[in-house]
Amino acid sequence: MIKINHLVVLASVSAMLAGYGPAASADAAAGKATFTTACAECHDVADFEGEDAAALRGTLKQIVAGSQKHKEALQLTDAQIADVAAYMTSGK
Q: What is the pTM (predicted TM-score) of this model?
């Protein structure tokens, strides 16, 4: 029973820390610049206002990895993905 409790605590802490990576230091202003050059031709930032940034980061990672269909291949770093997601979800 104690091992299970330890595993539950460890899993909870790991989950919290996993979301603390690039998203914690995301820069929406830098994201705007990247969005303008890589996304704005086809997408309007206002369409993503209020969306979940973590889910959007996941989608962007899938597009970059080539596992999700997209008009053009994207080459973005994890930091750029976090920045773009922060900007897109701000709707500004």
A: 0.72
